[in-house]
Design a protein that fits this description.
This protein is mainly alpha-helical. It is built from 7 helices and no strands. About 75% of the residues lie in helices and about 0% in strands. Helix 1 crosses helix 3, helix 4 runs parallel beside helix 6 and helix 4 runs antiparallel to helix 7. The chain is globular, with a radius of gyration of 17 Å.
Length: about 190
């Protein structure tokens, strides 16, 4: 509700545009279309279902901590792609024109510090409380690796298919890395 499902919409549009074998220009055109297609509908249902199942499978403390970290860390992945990859769409006609500009390395560094600070805070709180279970340092390490690997996979995919990123693909990278973080934390719980 707070974001207006902004990233979910980008994920659905990316599924529609890149789900088939459309050439670059056609894929970008499909992603601009406000209507949702079969790939987008299936993708968003699967994405939301997997996120809900992963979070419901975690103990309450783990789930709350994972939510906080995943929201900041997954956005750092999107900022990373926006920093290191060129914009693939037409900047003159971009809905999110500010995203058509690459962010600075300083902005990228700030985006990366927030999730690391949260992880450090949760790691310190874990040692101070026995009554409220929080993820282990190994779970946070797995979350960082999952986010990085997802970001690298998205970067490779978007560069190969589109020549860079668009606002929609940044939303898709955020959604995919958020899910990867939940799954990594869940895997470290042993479930």
């Amino acid at each position: 509700l707070l974001t207006g499902a902004f990233h979910e919409d980008g994920f659905a549009d990316t599924c529609d545009g890149l789900g088939g074998n459309a050439e670059r220009a056609r894929a970008l055109e499909i992603m601009k279309d406000s209507r949702i297609g079969a790939y987008g509908a299936i993708g968003i249902v699967v994405m939301l279902g997997l996120k809900a199942l992963a979070l419901m499978s975690l103990p309450l403390g783990w789930a709350l901590a994972a939510l906080c970290v995943a929201h900041t860390l997954s956005r750092a992945v999107a900022v990373s792609l926006n920093c290191w990859l060129p914009y693939a769409g037409d900047p003159a006609h971009a809905k999110a024109k500010p995203l058509a500009q690459q962010v600075s390395v300083g902005t990228w560094a700030v985006a990366c510090v927030w999730p690391l600070a949260l992880i450090a805070m949760f790691a310190a709180a874990r040692h101070g409380s026995d009554s409220f279970a929080l993820p282990s340092p190994q779970a946070w390490a797995a979350a960082l690796v999952a986010a990085a690997m997802t970001g690298l996979a998205c970067a490779r995919w978007f560069r190969r298919r589109l020549g860079g990123v668009t606002g929609d693909t940044l939303g898709a990278s955020q959604q995919l890395s958020e899910l990867a973080i939940y799954l990594a934390v869940l895997a470290m719980l042993g479930r």
